[in-house]
Prior knowledge:
- By secondary structure, this protein is of the alpha+beta class.
- The chain contains six helices and 14 strands.
- The protein has helices at residues 8-22, 88-92, 95-118, 144-160, 174-187, 195-199; strands spanning 33-34, 43-46, 71-74, 77-85, 140-142, 169-172, 190-191, 202-206, 209-213, 218-219, 228-233, 238-251, 258-270, 276-283.
- The strands form three sheets. Strands 5, 6, 7, 8, 9, 10, 11 and 14 form an eight-stranded mixed beta sheet that branches.
- Strand 10 and strand 11 form a beta hairpin.
- The protein is globular.
Amino acid sequence: MAIDNFKPTIWANEALLALKKRHVFPGLVNTDYQGQITAMGDTVKINGIGALTIGTDSRSISYEDLTDNTRSLLIDQERTFAFKIDDVDDAQSNPNLMQTAMGEAAYGLADATDAYLAGLVTDAGIKGAAAGLGVAGSPLELSSQGVLSLLSNLNKLMSENNVPTEGRSIILPPWAIEKLNIQSLYMGFNTTKNEEIIQNGYVGSFYGFNVFMSNNVATDDPASPTEWYIPAFTRPAISFAEQIASVEAMRLESSFSDAVRGLHLFGAKVVRPEALAMVVAVPGAEA
């Protein structure tokens, strides 16, 4: 049978590569882990060591043992794709067709993964009315100038929380990017023409943040949102692991065609909540 010649490893790698190119959130979080992902319920290890003691006297130096701060990350999410194709063998001889199909599958998987990671913002350690970041039911109303004030405030809050300045990111919904672009005409907003970066949602850097755009910023109601939960963070705040665990071909009994299906496994965890901020916001009127 034609499906006996199917190359699952090749197409699993193709799907994973296409998936990584389309990620927004996963490209900004920690993906340093150890372990094999093969099934739901697997765990992988997030590498880390404990804090070191800083001495004050060069004449009396003591050497401490490194402490293992490795954590476990549960792989508890799965997503699938499946499509029919007239002949798997013919499709594989036409790389453009299979790459296009895997690209479409990766787009859908990346969208689902981004939405899941966006939802972790509620575990942020920096949030609330006291921080000036709004709360559910009483959100910030962001005008174009308000977006600038928000970035400035977040920069201050993260610095006060000892969050490293390197690699600070914020992911904004399209309406907030539009308001920020209004200010870019006057404030020297640093945008990029790098095609690959733009594909992954990167818009530019401003007020100490790499600014990204995504439709997957969490909301109070995905079907009809009235509030957006905007995340600002650094890479160590969230750990993420994923794998295309299986891609296989089969003959469909209900039609004269072959089929390809795949399984995407992943898990994520907020491990440094102090490096993650949540802003509850809505579009505000312009002055």
